[in-house]
Amino acid sequence: MVGNRKAELISHSILKHITASILVKEGHKCGIEIEFFGLGIVDVIDWTDGIVYEIQPKKNRSAEADKVKRYTSNAEVKDVIFIYYRDYPLNMTVSNLYKKLKRKLVGER
Fold this sequence. Notes:
This protein is of the alpha+beta class. It contains three helices and four strands. It has helices at about 10-25, 60-70, 95-105, and strands spanning about 30-35, 40-45, 50-55, 80-85. β2 (about 40-45) and β3 (about 50-55) form a beta hairpin. The radius of gyration is 13 Å and the shape is globular.
């Protein structure tokens, strides 16, 4: 678990779990909040494809570049995908939120 878990927004937590749920339903092996070989705590990691999913409030190029550099320094990680929770507001129905996020993750319409 993240040390500052109390500071984590509800939307951040929900998106982590929906992301993992979508990946598992697609047959992927994934984990949530994994301490990644001393490189940081990843929100969701897809061990099947070697992709790390980071949930963030908005785009932050320098922070993203740092995370990409750190995580891809491990041979198991091929890419880092950022999901901005402001793009997935909680006032959407769960069904629509799930569908929109699934389109981003696996490209289905």
